[in-house]
Amino acid sequence: MNTLHSDGTVFKELYTETIIKDRIKELAIEIERDLSGSTPVVLAVMKGAVIFLADLVREIQTIDLEIDYVRVKSYGNEEVSSGTVELIQAPGVSLAGRDVVIVEDIVDSGQTIHFLRQHVEDAGAKSVRVATLLFKHECFKFSTPIEYIGFSIPNNFVIGYGLDHKQLKRNLPSIYSKQ
Ligand code: PRP
Prior knowledge:
The protein is globular. Strand 6, helix 3 and strand 7 (about 125-135) form a beta-alpha-beta unit. It contains three helices and ten strands. The strands form two sheets. Strands 5-4-3-6-7-8 form a six-stranded mixed β-sheet, with helices on both faces. With about 180 residues, the chain is of the alpha/beta class. Helix 1 (about 15-35) crosses helix 2 (about 50-60). Bound molecules: 1-O-pyrophosphono-5-O-phosphono-alpha-D-ribofuranose (PRP).
């Protein structure tokens, strides 16, 4: 298994590029099926979700969709999220009456997605779904639904494929885990 050293920490490859691609194809088929006949807004949560968004939307072939972005700020340290969430970039399109798919790279405690789901509902969306590539099932503290989960993972720090280590390593094509 590949190992990677980043800023003095050893990481091991958790999901290869091929495994990620295959799983994203499966998620895309589910989304196409659930949103058949709709033109959803696919809303990526900056910054980490942009890589997943780019690959996911290119696997969605049978429906039209719009892409938009939100940016949030959560207060906590670099590896463990805690505290509150603030919206610092709102969606650029009206979500009223729209089917919305919020795209995340990772759901950890769930506070970000709980906040965003509420925001999108409050904006008058017709429906809200959440797609996350990674889900830390041991850390999740909310009851907010997560409709599409790529991989459910234990509580280890992960980097690559959009996920950062001190703002670096988002460009790695695989996902690596601190053991
Ligand atoms: C990460 C991730 C989610 C959030 C998940 O973002 O992209 O938005 O944390 O954690 P939670 O479930 O505990 O709320 P981060 O704040 O690291 O920003 P980034 O995407 O810009 O790296």
